[in-house]
Design goal:
The protein is α/β, with parallel strands linked by helices. The protein is built from eleven helices and 14 strands. A six-stranded mixed β-sheet has the order 6-7-8-3-9-10, sandwiched between helices. It has a four-stranded antiparallel β-sheet with strand order 2-1-4-5. Strands 12-13-11-14 form a four-stranded antiparallel β-sheet, with no helix packed on it. The structure holds adenosine-5'-diphosphate.
Length: 314
């Protein structure tokens, strides 16, 4: 992928925190490369402490990197932080909004901060998109948690950046609001905004992201298009206990991968995208095997996540 097609390009990114008085420096990022395509919804996943916030904070210019390079919309943060910042909006995880301003005032303040002329401001448009038009003059302290979150998104969009970074957008929100936020993220993306989100909810990444990078202990574990990543999970296992002991798996069942285990049960590993449990059972029904018991097991994102993050632990 050429550089022009990248919204964010990160190479060899390292961060060592040297806390004052601490005996040991903390290596939070150990040389991370990331290529985030323009127009994508890109997920940065990892368990707590993996280095997600550190990465986001470096991109946002809030934390200084130790080594490596970061380009935002083609602008190197070392050479042109001003333009890099102009092209990105960050929605922080924590909801810190001045309680004594109204949403309208907050939007106008930020527009002023970015030097956007009055006639180019989109205050009401953004408040409407975030369904906050009715609350525009309410003190922010009277807004619900969900409304405050939406206001943070509106605020991050004030300067109309082509990239929006959402740090744990649905941490601690209820299911209904989570769905609403997802729908909104999709809508922004349809309008052409590149979305980068950090999450430790696999379901969220699976639902929303075109591409997923998993980091753990400051290292990139995997970075793949979501369907490719999910393909690795496309395996289920069915265990069939025959009513009468058998000493050989019938050919028709062996043909779909059936094997006998030590307990005399037939174990079949299969890809749900190519064969269903129903079809497997139909094949069993065509033999003279009577089923005494049956169970299925599947690997889910949680499994692969553990698998991928564990393998890096030493
Ligand atoms: P994540 O966002 O994935 O939970 P972070 O980027 O917050 O991870 O943290 C990565 C590692 O760096 C963790 O071990 C964390 O304790 C450490 N860390 C983060 N911020 C600081 C800091 N300001 N000083 C020292 N260590 C830090």
């Amino acid at each position: 992928m050429s550089d022009q097609e990248l919204a964010i390009k990160i190479r060899g990114l390292r961060k060592t925190y040297r806390a004052e008085g601490a005996t040991k420096a903390k290596e939070a990022l150990k040389g991370v490369d990331l290529s985030i395509p323009k127009g994508s919804i890109f997920g940065l996943l990892g368990p707590n402490g993996a280095g997600k916030s550190t990465s986001i904070n470096i991109i946002a210019g809030v934390v200084d990197k130790s080594e490596g390079s970061v380009e935002v919309w083609g602008f190197d943060i070392d050479k042109d932080m001003r333009n890099a910042k102009a092209n990105i909006g960050i929605v922080p995880q924590e909801v810190h909004i001045d309680a004594y301003f109204t949403p309208y005032e907050i939007m106008e303040l930020y527009a002023g901060y970015y030097g956007i002329p009055k006639e180019e401001r989109r205050t009401m448009e953004l408040l409407e998109v975030m369904r906050l038009q009715e609350q525009k003059d309410a003190y922010t302290r009277f807004l619900s948690g969900g409304m405050k979150r939406r206001l943070l998104v509106a605020k991050a969009m004030v300067h109309n950046p082509p990239i929006l970074v959402l740090d744990e957008p649905t941490a601690g929100v209820d299911v209904e609001l989570r769905q609403h936020i997802w729908e909104y993220v999709r809508e922004l993306n349809r309008q052409g905004v590149t979305i980068v989100l950090t999450t430790h909810y696999l379901e969220e990444a699976e639902e929303l992201c075109d591409e997923i990078a998993i980091i753990n202990h400051g290292e990139l574990v995997v970075c793949e298009k979501t369907p490719e990543l999910l393909k690795q999970l496309d395996e289920k296992m069915v265990v069939i206990q025959p009513a009468q002991a058998i000493n050989k798996v019938p050919d028709a069942i062996a043909a779909i991968g059936g094997k006998l285990n030590e307990e005399g049960a037939i174990v079949i590993h299969f890809s749900p995208s190519s064969i269903t449990v129903g079809q497997i059972l139909d094949k069993i029904a065509e033999t003279d095997i009577e089923i005494a018991d049956l169970k299925t097991e599947e690997s889910d994102l949680e499994d692969i996540f553990l698998q991928l993050t564990k393998s890096k632990e030493a």
